[in-house]
Amino acid sequence: MKKIGKIIFTVMAVLSPFAGIAQEKDLVQYVNTRQGTDSRFEMSRGNTYPATGMPFGVHLWSPQTGKNGEGWKYQWSEDKIRGFCQSHQCSPWMSDYAVYSLMPMSGELQVDQDERAEKFSHDNEIGKPNYYKVTFDSGVTTEIAPTERGAHMRFSYPSGEPAYLVLDGYTHSAGIDIDPEKRQISGWVDNYRFLNQPDGFRCWFVIQFDKPFEEYGLWENRNNSLMPGKAEGEGEGYGAYVRFKPGTKVQAKAASSYISQEQAELTLSQELGKDRKLEDTKQRGFETWNKLLNRVLVEGGTEEQLRTFYSCLFRANLFSRKFYEIKENGEPYYYSPYDGKVHDGYMYTVNGFWDTFRSQFPLTCILHPTMQGRYMVALLDAQQQCGWLPSWSNPGETGGMIGNHAISLLADAWAKGIRTFNPQRALEAYAHEAMNKGPWGGANGRVLPQDYFCRGYVPYPESGGSTAQTLEYAYDDFCGYQLAKMTGNRFYEDIFARQMYNYRNVFDSSTGFMRGRGRDGKWMEPFDPLAWGGPYCEGNAWHYNWSVFHDVQGLIDLYGSNEKFIAKLDSVFMMPSTIVPGTYGGIIHEMAEMELAGMGQYAHGNQPIQHMPYLYCYAGEPWKTQYWVRQIMDRLYNSGEKGFPGDEDQGGMSSWYVLSAMGIYSVCPGTDEYVIGSPIFRKVTITLENGNKFTIFAENNSPENVYIQSADLNGMELDKNYITYGDINAGGELHLVMGDTPAKDRCTSRYAAPFSLSKRDK
Ligand code: CA
């Protein structure tokens, strides 16, 4: 009987349309959400925290070791947890917003955030995308299983001692309403770091428990004063506490909304209504994540490479935050962090495009074109609401970093066939960005736009970071040009065509560096290419020399020959890792990370130079790309708490690894090309949203066999150093044969090189 049942089940599994799902491997097991958490102000190994949450989830959850408001909310080196918080943070430098925390404790009630902190050991901690668990030394256990806008939690208390749960309203104000009848705590918080949130910014929450309260009250975290028996109140730093029966296991379902208390309750019923047990929520989270991770199925790597790859793939799918909620009728709507009003449609925020246009979005275009299409519409809606295109939203616009890289996302989407938005609107929004200076930070509009347009560069010392700005503006103008050209808009095509070669205006051929330049046209003196800051942003001349994503051939021409260009590239790795702090006046973490990496002046810990190893493919020596990208992946990344060589940055550094480990990288978003590197794995199978499969098969691949000997695309010889988005999206196979010696006569011609404006011009 049993045997027959098993046979029938097997046949059904094969015939079922869901047969594919049955064959999915458990890839969630490889993800370590604590990757990169051994970070501190002076040295970042990721600056991550063990987020448990759904892909691009509205709210994530994390244990909290740092004080309320501290950017480093969880540090591997700490041994006490002071709460479990609703979290959105993408970087300690940006801090969090809309946070509240819950902390279980047994014995005496301790509300103070230092007093209540409990010792734990990492051995008693599990960090998975769909599940976080920790048991304190006190014996109290916390488990969390996330949904998109909420979480299912369980607190297990040892017997014989009073069992408390403390809710901390964090910094700023909070409103609390305890309803013992409903076994519910609801309320709101309004904390944020940046002052550019609309008036009335609030996050409403509701938490429902499955066990009754034996006692409850409010407290105030400024002076830790208790208000026993009080069920309702609001004020700065308000919190709540409840007591359960000793030895209880209590489940809590939580959900939040930026729109209203009613929406928070509706969301709770939408996302958690059916789940009786935490295990149900955990299982649903597992299925979502596992399905997503299986979309990039890798084979042939070591266990550690699988762990690193899937931990990075997890992180590449955490940011930006979805910022929309679902009405009762199933339609999306959102509270705008820009104008404070409620609008229909989709919204995404919490991302610094300076960090992510290079790798995270080009990866997202492959994996999530539908979401990317919604995102592009949301970008233009955000521009209407904010007055500026988002550049660093958290969740309102901060204008952090430099450049106007929203146009990179828009042009890239269009180039890849994601055409959900009105390109005229996008170009008008970008033109406004390119010709004006915005109110916040360096990246709403432009610094000294008149100088840039009239002189063709941003002058120094009038603007700190001027050379970096010039280079990034020129690339962004290329993206504007591209979008205009692709959509037949001659007006904007002509305008931006005049600007996109401006990188030439900051290249000093006498020293061979991109250099600071005064309004009088003279080069800045004294000049030390090792000096950080000044006309560069978070880097030095060695790092910014390569920021000509759209015209690498033009850059080669400035050097005069492939040989001279390659000698310069080689020098980056051969230089000593000497640090000259320059205008920073002291060591910043990016400098320390470069020194620790031990790869000369190659500073993978920060964005400006991360594409540079791929530039050998433009100059006839692709084998050096193949060598260096494997070195970087091997030496600078791992799956552990020291897993990254610098700030992870909203999936940016993870996406570099994911793309590179697959064997491709997007040097110039805004074109449809992915440059070929050297995959780690023998086989990578990407399942596209449209159901097609694209396989990258690297025959004879091994740690020594990093060099491509030959390549076929769908059975035809591939004599170029790139493939296109269309190649990937159509499905097919890139077949590489790997070896331990460079194939020095393969793909060396200008024809084989990826896109450059100057290549096309000739
Ligand atoms: Ca960075």
Residues in β-strands, percent: 15-25%
Question: CA-to-CA gap between the ends?
Answer: 75 Å
Largest sheet: 10 strands, antiparallel
Helix content: 25-40%
Low-confidence stretches: 1-22
Number of helices: 21
Report Rg: 26 Å
Number of strands: 35
Q: Reading side by side through the largest sheet, how are the strands ordered?
A: 2-5-6-7-8-17-12-11-10-15
Plain-language structure description:
The protein has 762 residues and is an alpha+beta fold. It contains 21 helices and 35 strands. A 10-stranded antiparallel β-sheet has the order 2-5-6-7-8-17-12-11-10-15. A hairpin with a 5-residue loop joins strand 30 and strand 31 (693-699). Helix 8 runs antiparallel to helix 9 (406-415), helix 9 runs antiparallel to helix 10 and helix 12 runs antiparallel to helix 13 (490-497). It starts with a helix and ends with a helix. The model is unreliable at 1-22 (pLDDT under 50). The structure holds calcium ion (CA). Calcium ion binds next to loops. Its EC number is 3.2.1.-. Residues 263-740 form the Glycosyl hydrolase family domain. Its cofactor is Ca(2+). InterPro entries: 6-hairpin_glycosidase_sf, GH-type_carb-bd, GH92_a_mannosidase_put, GH92_N, Glyco_hydro_92, PNGase. This is GH92 family glycosyl hydrolase.
List the helices and strands and how they pair.
Blueprint: H1 2-15, H2 19-22, E1 60-64, E2 80-81, E3 83-87, E4 101-106, E5 118-128, E6 131-136, E7 141-146, E8 150-156, E9 163-168, E10 173-179, E11 184-189, E12 203-209, E13 215-220, E14 225-228, E15 232-236, E16 238-244, E17 249-257, H3 261-272, H4 278-293, E18 296-299, H5 303-316, E19 321-322, E20 325-326, E21 332-335, E22 342-344, E23 348-349, E24 351-352, H6 353-356, H7 360-367, H8 369-386, E25 392-393, H9 406-415, H10 423-435, H11 449-455, H12 466-486, H13 490-497, E26 507-508, E27 513-514, H14 541-544, H15 552-559, H16 562-574, H17 589-597, H18 622-636, H19 652-662, E28 664-665, E29 673-676, E30 683-687, E31 693-699, E32 707-713, E33 716-717, E34 722-724, H20 725-729, E35 732-739, H21 757-761
Helix pairs in contact: 5-19, 8-9, 9-10, 9-12, 10-12, 12-13
The chain binds calcium ion.
